[in-house]
Design brief:
Blueprint (H helix, E strand, L loop, with lengths): L1 H5 L1 H16 L5 H15 L1 H16 L1 H10 L4 H14 L9 H18 L1 H4 L10 E2 L3 E2 L9 H19 L6 H13 L1 H4 L4 H24 L19 E3 L5 E3 H4 L19 E2 L5 E2 L1
Antiparallel strand pairs: 1-2, 3-4, 5-6
Helix pairs in contact: 2-3, 2-7, 3-12, 5-6, 7-12, 9-10, 9-12
Amino acid sequence: MIVAGILTPIEDVLTEVLIWLHDSAGLTWAWSIVALVVVVRLLLVPLAIKQIHSMQSLQLHAPEMKAIQQRYKSDRQKQSEELMKFYRENKINPYASCLPIVLQIPIFIALFFVLRDFDDEIYPRFPESTLEWLNLVDITDDTSAGWGPLLLVVYVVSQLTSTWLMSTSMQSNAQRYMLMALPVFFIPFILSFPAGLMIYWLTTNLWTTGQGIVTRRLMPRRTPPPKKSSRTPPKEPVGETADGEPGEATAARPAKTAGSGAPSRSGPRRVKKKRGGRPRR
């Protein structure tokens, strides 16, 4: 299988880490998988911090990005160009929120192959070890066996919670609901996964949820950019008087008449006199 061949180095590393955690640290195989999650997530902490900063930036600049989308809604190419330009000017990486998940996918798939052949390649070397976790599931059995469906329910709840926390920066509710529907959509496939793989993904989802809650409380929020209001009147330029002294340009300008556009004269209106008659008003 091509994918298995590509992921062979990762499989070898995971196998050695699991054996070390079981043999040297004295953990059971199931708890070694949990410890593996902790090791992987600790290595991804710098990316997680960048992820949170990127999400905060997207939230702060969401109105401006929405305005760009509305301005170029008839031209998708121009809209994409302007958005990318906006990202560069404001140092926003729209893909940073996906990096921790993307980097875990190869580990997830490689662990699937490790657990698939666990009974034949690893377990015979440690015959006295146990494969059970909390007396609920065997890590090499399918998730559909025993108490595996209970793990599946906890997985779906944790996945929905972590997805909700990670998708708060999305401008479209449709995108958020689509991401939240994915765990439910994958349930028929997950039932055939080894229970140890479900333990891994359940643990990493719980880590993501806790990390999101903690970082939102500890990390300072970024200051939003100043907003300009269309109701704020523009400042009038300061003009000069006849003597060269600064004065109010608006007050000094003569008002225009309604019809001709010529400036009106200040002072009392003069009355022209008719020759040899009464004055005409």
